[in-house]
């Protein structure tokens, strides 16, 4: 099939050569000719040194400068905005700037690695993440008693719509691109429905579906260090389509049987980083409100997704009463996988992927959730999971509580040993929250007899949480990050029209100011003003008005930019609405019915507002947003449709 497919592409799909030019995107061929003309006249004037030739050179220089200015202005005012409508992908490539595709690496001695050997050096680093499962022991698994999962039926019409919904992405080693599949969806859906049915029935996959093409992406830091690269794996697009179908059936089966532990918020519908942060921080604020001490231990799994044992994963899957064909297909999907690294137009040799959930796959995240799902079962302290991001914590009233938390750490260590996982002990941290307490002792906890270090602040799921439960550190981080991006826009897009600069601000700057802002929305005027100052400077940049006499409020009104504090309030209410109507589990944990509801002034969706003893708890999410929710008009609070609710509160 692949050979026939590629032969049709070679025969009917036109090819064009794209030349890579390392110059400004507005630098046209006409400008290149003018610049070359200017250089020729300069050489001529320098050799003859006559007045006429110098005059010709100066005229050419003036002509070039004028043409350059016109081309640059035209690019920002016309070309770039039109690209946003016609080719958004190219637009954002131009906005983010050209990327250096060449990788220059050094070995441990600091000597340069040959360009054609970089792929092998990176392959050697990446394959170190895999773990060899030498144990023959199979842990005892309890039968959860689930009913048998129904066999998966491939629906041609459903597959047709799935193909049309595919996003543009790079193909795997089979070279089958999603763009071509979308253009031929009517025919491909017929072929793939038969191919997928046969693959499921026989539990067999083509070798191309089990091969990954790894593209190394540099992390922040030293780009010459092979260990400072992140592997991004490209896999077969047709295989991803079948994975989508299997994923949909499998996730429905697991959710219907309440398989997932309620502490897991990663890769699940109606769960997110925000819901995880909300539950975690609310526990901290409410405990601190009573003067309690809370010890938090942040755990870091070492290469968690790459070290999953295939044998042990299949054991866990076999206990879930999954359809036998589906289980055998997943077993084939995991076995005999290979990958190679592409760097500097060279490919490394293939290496076997002996462990881990397949990176770049659709099923990978779900398989990891299944693998780690029973970790919380032996923990008595509170545990929060977002995929492999894990934190356990407990209120400490005496030494016995500390012993229980240490016991939970020991249980997690035992679980890791049993299931071939490892903790990166150097990155596991302790944070004691003792706001309002006179206890200044440092907590002592250990993993495998190694003492863990204590920190005063920790970045959890992208939000900095400190031991005083203030948002000073996080707001400072957010402001610095947004300022750097605003500086980039001011340096590179000063000539862009207002509409484009406004879009760039909303997409690149404001998004940084608002990530999980419903959780860390500060009440301190100094922090609120510091955040708003970023938007004020951005607004002046957008309209190119830096006059001290210009009213910043008028400028923001003309751009339809509400204050960030107002947007954070709307974000809090939107999160509240999602939880209230879409997530009964979290709703039951955070909110309860009030003791009294007035038929005259209250709506029927009113919730209990917790009693607060401290200012910091009073201004945290649950008390503050519960009160705001209770004061919403009944017509808005009772609306279960999230889109219309969001529109309604934005008009208040």
From TrEMBL:
Keyword Cell cycle applies: no
Molecular function GO terms recorded: RNA-directed DNA polymerase activity
Domain Reverse transcriptase as annotated: residue spans: 198-465
Coiled-coil blocks: none
SUPFAM superfamilies: DNA/RNA polymerases
Pfam families assigned to the protein according to its UniProt record, in alphabetical order: RVT_1
Keyword list, A-Z: Nucleotidyltransferase, RNA-directed DNA polymerase, Transferase
PANTHER family listed in its UniProt record: REVERSE TRANSCRIPTASE DOMAIN-CONTAINING PROTEIN
Name of this protein: Putative rna-directed dna polymerase from mobile element jockey-like protein
């Amino acid at each position: 099939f692949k050979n026939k497919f590629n032969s049709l592409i070679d025969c009917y799909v036109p090819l064009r050569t794209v030349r890579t030019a390392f110059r400004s995107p507005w630098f046209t061929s006409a400008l290149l000719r003018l610049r070359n003309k200017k250089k020729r006249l300069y050489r001529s004037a320098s050799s003859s040194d006559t007045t006429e030739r110098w005059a010709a050179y100066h005229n050419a220089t003036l002509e070039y400068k004028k043409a350059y200015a016109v081309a640059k202005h035209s690019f920002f005012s016309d070309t770039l905005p039109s690209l946003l409508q016609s080719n958004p992908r190219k637009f954002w490539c131009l906005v983010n700037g050209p990327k250096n595709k060449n990788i220059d690496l050094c070995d441990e001695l600091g000597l340069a690695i040959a360009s054609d050997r970089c792929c092998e050096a990176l392959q050697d680093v990446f394959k170190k993440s895999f773990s060899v499962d030498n144990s023959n022991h199979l842990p005892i698994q309890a039968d959860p008693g689930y009913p048998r999962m129904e066999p998966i039926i491939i629906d041609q019409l459903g597959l047709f719509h799935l193909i049309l919904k595919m996003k543009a992405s790079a193909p795997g080693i089979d070279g089958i691109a999603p763009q071509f599949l979308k253009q031929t969806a009517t025919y491909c859906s017929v072929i793939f429905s038969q191919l997928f049915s046969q693959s499921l029935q026989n539990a067999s996959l083509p070798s191309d579906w089990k091969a990954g093409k790894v593209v190394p992406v540099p992390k922040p830091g030293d780009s010459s260090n092979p260990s400072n690269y992140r592997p991004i794996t490209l896999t077969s697009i047709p295989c991803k389509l079948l994975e989508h179908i299997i994923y949909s059936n499998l996730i429905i089966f697991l959710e219907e049987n309440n398989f997932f532990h309620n502490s897991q918020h990663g890769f699940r519908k109606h769960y997110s980083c925000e819901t995880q942060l909300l539950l975690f921080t609310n526990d901290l604020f409410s405990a601190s409100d009573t003067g309690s001490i809370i010890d938090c231990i942040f755990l870091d799994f070492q290469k968690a997704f790459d070290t999953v044992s295939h044998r042990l994963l299949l054991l866990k899957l076999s206990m879930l009463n999954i359809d036998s064909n589906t289980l055998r297909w997943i077993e084939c999907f995991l076995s005999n996988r290979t990958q190679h690294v592409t760097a500097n137009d060279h490919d490394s040799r293939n290496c076997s992927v002996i462990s881990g959930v397949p990176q770049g796959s659709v099923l990978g995240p779900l398989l990891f959730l299944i693998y780690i799902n029973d970790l919380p079962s032996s923990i008595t302290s509170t545990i929060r999971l977002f995929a492999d991001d894990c934190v356990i914590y407990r209120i400490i009233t005496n030494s016995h509580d500390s012993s229980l938390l240490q016991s939970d750490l020991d249980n997690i260590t035992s679980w890791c040993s049993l299931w071939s996982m490892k903790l990166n002990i150097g990155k596991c941290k302790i944070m004691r929250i003792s706001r309002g307490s006179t206890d200044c002792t440092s907590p002592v906890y250990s993993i495998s007899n190694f003492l863990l270090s204590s920190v005063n602040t920790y970045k959890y799921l992208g939000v900095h949480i400190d031991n005083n439960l203030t948002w000073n550190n996080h707001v400072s981080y957010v402001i610095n990050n947004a300022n750097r991006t605003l500086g980039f826009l001011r340096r590179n897009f000063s000539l862009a029209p207002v509409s484009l600069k406004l879009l760039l601000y909303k997409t690149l700057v404001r998004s940084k100011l608002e990530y999980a802002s419903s959780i860390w929305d500060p009440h301190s005027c100094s922090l609120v003003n510091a955040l708003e100052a970023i938007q004020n400077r951005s607004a002046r940049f957008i309209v190119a008005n830096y006059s001290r006499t210009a009213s910043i409020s008028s400028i923001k009104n003309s751009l339809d930019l509400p204050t960030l504090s107002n947007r954070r309030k709307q974000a809090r209410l939107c999160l509240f609405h999602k939880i209230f109507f879409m997530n009964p589990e979290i709703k039951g944990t955070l909110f309860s019915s009030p003791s009294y509801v007035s038929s005259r002034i209250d709506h029927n969706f009113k919730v209990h507002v917790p009693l607060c003893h401290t200012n910091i708890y009073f201004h945290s999410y649950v008390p503050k947003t519960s009160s705001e929710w209770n004061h919403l008009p009944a017509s808005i609070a009772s609306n279960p449709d999230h889109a219309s609710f969001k529109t309604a509160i934005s008009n208040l």
